[in-house]
Amino acid sequence: MGTNDIFILAIESSCDETSAAVIADGKVLNNIVATQSVHEKYGGVVPELASRAHQENLVPVVQEAIVSSGISKDRLSAVAFTRGPGLMGSLLVGVSFAKALAYAQNIPLIEVNHMNAHILAHFIEEPRPEFPFICLTVSGGHTQLVLVKDHLDMKVIGETQDDAVGEAFDKTAKLLGLPYPGGPLIDKYAREGDPKSFQFPITRMPELNYSFSGIKTAVLYFLRDKLKENPGFIDENLADLCASIQYSLVEMLLIKLKAAVKKYGVKEVAIAGGVSANTGLRDALTQLAEKKGWNLYIPKFEYCTDNAAMIAMAAHYKYLKGEFSSMDVTPLAKMKI
Questions:
Q1: Does 273 lie in the same domain as 140?
Q2: How much is the pTM?
Q3: Residue range 294-321: average pLDDT?
Q4: Do residue 204 and residue 228 come from a single domain?
Q5: Domain limits at 259?
Q6: Disulfide check for 139: which of 119, 195, 254, 274 has CB 3.0–4.6 Å away?
Q7: 41 falls in which pLDDT band (50, 70, 90)?
Q8: What is the pLDDT of residues 55-75, one digit of tens each?
Q9: Percentage of the chain surpassing pLDDT 70?
């Protein structure tokens, strides 16, 4: 590596994963992630506990990222961090650390939008999508269709008007008595079930927007009525219930994605965010892409969930454009692409 190489340390702390990564000239060298298990017994992420865990995890995670990269902090060109969207307390831990390190090393600070970074995870490794492409970004907090014209030129063309699809997975899983996080468990049991066993509503919103609150209510009333007739209904039908719920959620996602591809005449299609790790969605999308002749891009599992490698990738492109933040930058719980 030469003397003019661009080395960026990136920090991700938007929710309940503490992560750090080092990128060298656009090549991610590592991706260190500390997952918080403290939230499981509460059935969801507790913001106060999340920020405390970030305070405990951040220094060792950053230390490991720097040491394993083989690059000393004195050679860093910039420090990047997630500014938002996310939990305010969690974001604050990452922002404060990044500011302190950048100030101490006298190097630039780069703020990154968490949702832009999910999309730019596609540029960590080959194959990389060609511009323009449409990205379906699906996570616990967001569901968006994004037209991506360049690394830093993105436009949201459709999004959920209420719950995110990841939230719908977790909430329906809770109704089935599954522990948090329930989304991956619905995916697991769905593989053994029949997706046509039970019918749940496919909510149709205007234009390219989504709504996922209706299916949660439908599942709630459906289970209430069935459990009155048979208290063992959920246990006896768990796999089929999971498969049917997952089928409806995936179908809603794909209906709008197909409409977006048709409207914008784009054949390059990508998926990003934590829910893109769902095998039911991946399989359905792969089959649809083959049928429609799309070029489909699905990131590795490790780059689907919250991680600093994607923050590093976004920061690399911002560094090349000279897009730096001032030291008075503050986190934003809500932040649009």
A1: yes
A2: 0.92
A3: 95
A4: yes
A5: 128-299
A6: 274
A7: low
A8: 888 889 999 999 999 999 999
A9: 94
- The Cα–Cα gap between 5 and 75 comes to 9
The two tokens of residue 294 are 């799309």
Q: Identify whether residues 87 and 215 lie together within a single domain.
A: no
pLDDT in tens, 177-228: 999 889 999 999 999 999 999 999 999 899 999 999 999 999 999 999 999 9
